[in-house]
Amino acid sequence: EPFITFKNVTKTYRMGEVDIHALSGVNFCVEKGEFAIVVGPSGAGKSTILNVLGGMDSCDGGTITVDGNLISDYNRKQLTAYRRSDIGFVFQFYNLVQNLTALENVELASEICKNPLDAAKTLDMVGLSERKGNFPAQLSGGEQQRVAIARALAKNPKLLLCDEPTGALDYQTGKTILKLLQDTCKETGMTVIVITHNQAITGMADRVIEVKNGLVSSMHINEHPVPVQ
Ligand code: ADP
Ligand code: ADP
């Protein structure tokens, strides 16, 4: 069985009198160690996929498995443990704690999980050991995102979920962040999923999952992923 499976996953939001079908029967899989990109226009359902996969929200129907576990059947307590130990999160706007240093931000993440990596070592992995004593406001956008990636890696997660990780960065910096995520995936064997509306970066993924109107409209494998252009 693949590392991640979505089978007929549905999610509906009730807005007053109106039902909004965010996911209308989503099917896809991702193999262990893949660098996968979920791409689609705004409103397609990408964040909803990330939320149900990351255990932040539950789906209404269908099944989701991660590493052989049926997470769509997890209760709240199980989901909290899953979010804390199994998943690393990277966000568009970094979500760093402003009054903690880079190193302290990374240490914070390792405190809540079961098998943390050494915080200083993960800052080294992202090339930021020299900046460990700096506060977020003293770092560039790209550096802040690298701290956020180090924080996610410090949890030693099975799965890294990245929501528009380059959305707040200039083009060149965005490229180095994507390259870092791709290299981390290959070097650690960790499964990485990036959510984006940016079609231009799909060539670098091992697997591309296109989402439209709450459905997967196509899925393809790149036998020879290319670096970001
Ligand atoms: P994307 O991330 O691709 O932009 P989303 O998953 O955020 O798409 O949204 C899919 C659909 O679900 C959209 O129509 C959006 O308005 C709706 N939606 C998402 N979250 C909520 C929510 N909490 N309440 C109501 N509707 C929502
Ligand atoms: P609790 O609220 O039970 O203390 P949290 O959900 O705050 O647990 O934290 C568990 C993990 O889930 C943390 O690593 C955190 O980064 C992540 N997390 C929590 N909420 C979200 C969210 N909305 N989106 C992405 N990740 C989240």
From TrEMBL:
GO terms for molecular function: ATP binding; ATP hydrolysis activity; transmembrane transporter activity. Signal peptide: none annotated. It comes from the Bacteria. Pfam families: ABC_tran. One of its GO terms (cellular component) is membrane protein complex. Transmembrane segments: none annotated. The keyword Ligase does not apply. Keywords: ATP-binding, Nucleotide-binding, Transport. SMART domains: AAA. Residues 4-229 form the ABC transporter domain. Belongs to the ABC transporter superfamily. PANTHER family: ABC TRANSPORTER ATP-BINDING PROTEIN MG467-RELATED, LIPOPROTEIN-RELEASING SYSTEM ATP-BINDING PROTEIN LOLD. This is ABC transporter ATP-binding protein. It comes from Merdimmobilis hominis.
